[in-house]
Write a structure and sequence with these properties.
alpha/beta, about 200 residues, about 20% strand
Length: about 200
């Protein structure tokens, strides 16, 4: 089975950039850190999904051989990844550079019994959305990782409680004030850490 872990570029992944830091460098540091986390997962390919407005960032951080998909939103991303031969995929936001690898792996274990799986974000939205491919017909095409009530909408759409696996939640860097939540004791987020320490 081919499985992909994908850093999905939303439109707001630079919103947490603090004053005095180049937003482009900040956004790319976030993406690199998330991609590094995903690359550490066993038996999972790492890929990037961008829309036309973020594809330059994707090209700047992609390493040789990494799949790069241009798609507008989760539904299109799952369809495109299916066209590349993947049978499962998890889409991750770019603004969670300190996401632990153990939590990043949770959506894939959730797909062992459920059609879809999520990692919720604190306090709203999602960190990750995973699905078997093709995605189930009940998965709302209008829900993405930035939808504030995404978890509630997915739970309401699921035909049975077991169709949606829900992992523990994590945080996102949605505004400069959120940078204070980054824990220096946590491993990872090296690019973001380095950029912020040098500002």
């Amino acid at each position: 089975m081919r499985v992909a872990a994908v850093a999905l570029f939303g439109t707001g992944y630079r919103d947490g950039c603090p004053p005095g830091v180049d937003p482009v460098r900040f956004g790319r540091a976030l993406i690199e850190d998330v991609a590094d986390v995903l690359a550490s997962l066993s038996q999972v390919d790492t890929a990037l999904v961008a829309d036309e407005s973020t594809v330059d960032d994707a090209k700047a951080v992609a390493w040789p051989g990494m799949a790069l998909v241009t798609a507008g939103g989760p539904a299109a991303a799952f369809e495109a990844l299916g066209g590349l031969g993947y049978q499962e995929a998890a889409l991750f936001v770019a603004d969670a550079p300190d996401l632990p690898a153990l939590l990043a792996a949770k959506p894939f274990s959730g797909l062992s019994t459920a059609d879809t799986a999520v990692v919720p974000s604190q306090p709203v939205g999602l960190i990750a959305l995973a699905s078997r491919i093709p995605a189930p017909a009940w998965l709302p095409s209008t829900v993405d990782l930035d939808t504030p009530d995404a978890l509630e909408l997915l739970r309401a759409a699921a035909p049975a409680p077991g169709a949606l696996a829900v992992a523990p939640s994590w945080r996102r860097l949605r505004a400069p004030a959120d940078l204070s939540s980054l824990d220096p004791a946590l491993e990872g987020w090296e690019m973001t850490r380095s950029l912020l320490s040098g500002r």
